[in-house]
Design goal:
178 residues; mainly alpha; Diphtheria Toxin Repressor, domain 2; 2 domains; 8 helices
Length: 178
């Protein structure tokens, strides 16, 4: 009697598959890679340059970016890009896109923080100015108070929001940007 398992796939002439992937899962992966390709094509040239791609993929993406989006050639080029992506490890590309997305989100958060600080100064006056100075010592108290007074005058006279915009630009120049 032998020590071999009679039900073993390898002994019966069948090779065991490492991992079974259903047809539906393959389609999902293909769609995700197609969307990834579309995302690459829709990036600006400067952003595309920051993404790690091999020459063949880079050329395909650049060609698709130059094509009219209403033509069949564009659709076929996107399909080709999807095919190229299926043949590659896309982790570096996804990491590059995630980095770009994170930079964009951080930039938006910084912008909203500046807007929030400006609005607080307008609504609360000296208390908001003091709180802002505690966080950002490099700001000028006198300048902030001056902007606050100018904005009040502008609003009383229904004038153009010149000081309102100037306050935002001043805060933007001093407060840390992402």
């Amino acid at each position: 009697m032998s020590n071999h398992d009679p039900n073993s796939f390898e002994e019966n002439g069948f090779e065991e598959e490492n991992e079974f992937v259903s047809k539906s899962e393959l389609k999902r992966q293909s769609k995700e890679l197609h969307k990834l390709g579309e995302t690459l094509v829709n990036l600006t040239a400067a952003h595309r340059a920051t993404i790690a791609m091999d020459d063949e993929l880079q050329e395909a993406v650049e060609l698709a970016a130059g094509l009219s989006r209403k033509k069949d050639g564009f659709r076929r080029q996107l399909q080709f890009i999807g095919k190229l992506l299926r043949q590659r490890d896309v982790t570096d590309i996804q990491a590059g896109l995630a980095k770009l997305t994170h930079q964009h989100q951080a930039s938006n958060a910084a912008f909203h923080a500046i807007e929030k600080a400006r609005d607080a100064i307008i609504e609360q006056g000296d208390t908001a100015i003091q709180a802002l100075l505690e966080k950002h010592e490099e700001l000028d108290r006198q300048k902030l108070r001056q902007f606050y007074r100018q904005i009040k005058k502008e609003r009383e006279k229904n004038g153009p929001p010149k000081a309102f915009r100037e306050l935002f630009q001043y805060l933007k120049s001093i407060m840390p940007q992402a």
